[in-house]
Write a structure and sequence with these properties.
The complex is a heterodimer. Chain A is α+β, with helices and mostly antiparallel strands. Helices cover about 30% and strands about 35% of the residues of chain A. Chain A has a four-stranded mixed beta sheet, covered by helices on one side. The longest helix of chain A is centred in the middle third of the chain and has 13 residues. Chain A is globular and about 30 Å long. The two termini of chain A are about 15 Å apart. Chain B is an all-alpha fold. In chain B, helix 4 runs antiparallel to helix 8. The two termini of chain B are about 35 Å apart. The chains are: A alpha+beta, B mainly alpha. The interface between A and B is medium-sized, with 29 and 35 residues.
Amino acid sequence: MSRVVDARGLSCPQPVLMTLNEMKGMSEGEIVIFVDTDTSKENVSRAATSKGWEINDLQPDGLGYRITIAK
Amino acid sequence: MRMVKNYLATRWGIISVGAGIGILAPLLQKWGNPGNMGICVACFERDIAGAIGLHRAAVVQYMRPEIIGFVLGSVVAAYVFKEFRSRAGSAPIVRFVLGAFAMIGALVFLGCPWRAMLRLAAGDGNAIVGLLGLVVGIWIGTLFLKNGYNLGRTTETYPAVGWLLPLLMLGFLTLRVVYPPLQGEAKSGVLFYSLKGPGAMYAPLLLSLFVGLGIGFLAQRSRFCTMGAFRDLLLFGQIHLLSGVIALIIAAFITNLILGQFHPGFVKQPVAHTMALWNFSGMALAGLAFALAGGCPGRQLFLAGEGDGDAAVFVLGMIVGAGFAHNFGLASSPKGVGSHGIAAVIIGLAVCLFIGFAMRQRKGAYTRGVEEGQTEAA
């Protein structure tokens, strides 16, 4: 079971802010983030790894991407 | 090409792009652009506003090819790297107003963040005060972001929507080619030209255009942003974008030293004034407006080139704002602030604070499809 962040249509820094907010209070677990630009994909991935999370999966999804991060 | 794409997204990629801009901007000055203004997105859009007669300040009228190049270079990169996505609908009117006040703030300081850094790298001490104002403006913006400020989602739309600003730029380029500057003439066809002042100082058309295209191409892919640099540092403690900005300043400093363009001091700096409070406040207004709009003026051009219709509206807001700035006496000159510049900064800050306070959404209110953070996905 994962938590989901839908950041499609939102530009930076919103996708990163939403992801970081979701991480708050999570010592471990999985978050699935939907984004729709390459910029958001890169920024979310960079922010996640810098917070010690791993990118478990990164798939094209519709017009954007589905990023699965875990800790 | 894939290697280039991946490299530009790395730390070294953004450092290379920042350093490249830092070398090319002082060279453009050497080739003819105004003092410490090898590249200034705000000043050059203001010059474009003058060239098409939106204001009639005789010394700042020129159809700047660099701006055209930034947008078209970004279009090329977006297509090469398959990133062109036409999108629009995230509070365009707000972005227009933010663009207009960002321009007004920048013209009170006399430069956008790009020029503030180039001024610093050429020894202009007033730029330090301006950059401090920029950082404070961005910091206020991050407070709004932390408290739920958000202009809402964009929607995928017809490719033609994303093409409108690039087409406008192609139109501007056509005008510049069809109606070139004529010796001693203040008008060529429909375009206004400056006979003296910064508007009369420009590098050769093809050089300006190709440098603009090159920077537009690289900056689209590397996401170079002078506002995002400080925002990400203040908001997330990230220095990715900041490393590009630092590279720009260092490279421009070295290039200026080599070219003999480094002149340290506060007084008699080219196209600059010494009124510290208004250098600070003008840039604080600009920084806040850029932060609320999600990008510095350069980044807005690059976003517009990859199909972001809202960034395009911000650009048009800046160009129209330049018209207001010069028609209403809001823009500064080397003598100091304009007759109504101080009032404009105060009104601009009030408008930006209103936007920041009024456009906050409750957690989850802007979600679509799934409830943000609430839904358990299988």
